[in-house]
Task: inverse folding
């Protein structure tokens, strides 16, 4: 039998990642009656599992305004939420190992400084070695792109901080069950179905990460969102040897966390073949051509899912997800090798744990954010394509503003769903 909640909400947010929790926080703080629906627990998916880079550097220029808008939020976040999130503005460094690397980085740096006023600058090899403690003098680095205003934070703590603050501002949460449908009445949103219960609201934000496309498809919006499984490894802590900047090498990103451990992850990951993999194939031809290393096709994934698994890693700082994504041992090795080559003084550090997260990707590798034409009351913030932790708080703020009928505080015109539905 279907039950209907006895109260009407101003806003229902689907998804308790950094985008959903921050949207719930800002909306509740603005006085809206907010319900957040999360199928597992806050930060159990990408927002608790990512590398923690908060970078403007090397972003697609179409999402740069969103990310630049997020920086003042990060800078004031611990004061605003009254909680520690491990924020540190240690800069972001993208190492170059060839003349071609330098050319690409110089082109980005030129546009970012001239058009967006960023503090990004190019460093020589000597300057790079002077800036990054423990970087090996013989690691073949020829220079780097460096953005001092970039930073880092602890993903699970930041997401939970938004969640706790939303709760304190009066938001309500429904955990443990997935939203199963977005309901419409007379052409506009009327609520969210969670199994046999209907929660009513005039505005719904879908911020369900890799769960968004299936929900939106049921509601009539077909987004070509796909999934990449990415692996992260974490070493034992060595707080006495500090590296403040986030570093991107040839393959891997490396960040030292608040406890002094090093997290590392190879850019890209595994595309696990599914029975419905044909669905969005036509959208990804260009993406595969321009970035062939972004995803390795795992043809055996449907079979591997049937194999028994080892227990999940006991050391992670986030709740488990019902997806139980499998960390890939060879990705841990790849990241580890690069880490040891770049930082031989740290090569003796043991890998203590590893995990994976399912990245929600769009064909053009930037998110969809905002209203949906013809679906009054529906807002989406999804498809952050592996780099949504940094802009997440600003995406949440944008969505909360739109939910209360105001304008987006930053330009999101390039992030509209229209780029997919009108083809
Ligand atoms: C390994 C890895 C490294 C990364 N590194 C970085 C980085 O360094 N910097 C950066 O900026 N970004 C990084 N990212 C990307 C970043 O983590 C994501 O873009 C960001 O966290 C997305 O946040 P979100 O709130 O949109 O989604 P998520 O964090 O995925 O949250 C979505 C939530 O929705 C819930 N959900 C799904 N379906 C339903 C449903 N039907 N009903 C209810 N709830 C549902 C899920 O359980 C989940 O909690 C990385 C990602 C990974 C996996």
Result:
């Amino acid at each position: 039998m279907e039950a209907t909640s006895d109260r009407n909400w101003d806003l229902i947010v689907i998804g308790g990642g950094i985008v959903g929790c921050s949207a719930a926080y800002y909306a509740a703080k603005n006085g809206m009656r907010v319900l957040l629906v999360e199928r597992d627990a806050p930060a159990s998916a990408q927002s608790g599992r990512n590398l923690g880079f908060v970078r403007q550097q090397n972003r697609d220029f179409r999402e740069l305004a969103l990310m630049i808008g997020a920086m003042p939020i990060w800078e004031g976040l611990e004061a605003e939420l009254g909680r520690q999130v491990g924020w540190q503005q240690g800069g972001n460094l993208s190492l170059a190992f060839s003349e071609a690397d330098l050319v690409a980085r110089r082109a980005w740096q030129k546009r970012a400084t001239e058009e967006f006023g960023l503090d990004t600058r190019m460093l020589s090899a000597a300057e790079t070695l002077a800036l990054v403690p423990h970087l090996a003098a013989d690691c073949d680095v020829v220079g780097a792109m460096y953005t001092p205003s970039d930073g880092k934070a602890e993903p699970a703590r930041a997401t939970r901080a938004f969640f706790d603050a939303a709760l304190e501002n009066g938001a309500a949460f429904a955990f443990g069950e997935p939203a199963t449908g977005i309901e419409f009445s007379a052409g506009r949103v009327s609520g969210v179905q969670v199994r046999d219960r209907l929660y009513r609201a005039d505005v719904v934000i879908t911020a369900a990460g890799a769960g968004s496309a299936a929900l939106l498809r049921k509601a009539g919006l077909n987004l070509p969102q796909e999934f990449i499984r990415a692996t992260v490894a974490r070493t034992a802590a060595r707080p006495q040897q500090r590296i403040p900047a986030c570093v991107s090498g040839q393959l891997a990103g490396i960040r030292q966390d608040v406890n002094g451990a090093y997290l590392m992850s190879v850019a890209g990951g595994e595309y696990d073949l599914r029975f419905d993999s044909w669905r969005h194939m036509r959208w990804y031809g260009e993406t595969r051509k321009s970035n062939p290393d972004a995803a390795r096709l795992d043809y055996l994934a449907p079979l591997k899912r049937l194999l028994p698994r080892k227990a999940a890693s006991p050391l992670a700082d986030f709740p488990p997800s019902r997806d139980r994504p499998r960390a890939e041992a060879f990705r841990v090795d790849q990241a580890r090798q690069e880490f040891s080559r770049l930082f031989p003084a740290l090569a003796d550090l043991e890998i203590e744990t590893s995990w994976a997260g399912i990245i929600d990707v769009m064909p053009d590798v930037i998110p969809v954010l905002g209203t949906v034409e013809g679906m009054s009351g529906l807002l989406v913030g999804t498809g952050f394509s592996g780099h949504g932790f940094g802009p997440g708080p600003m995406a949440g703020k944008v969505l909360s503003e739109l939910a209360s009928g105001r304008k987006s505080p930053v330009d999101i015109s390039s992030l509209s769903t229209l780029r997919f539905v009108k083809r």
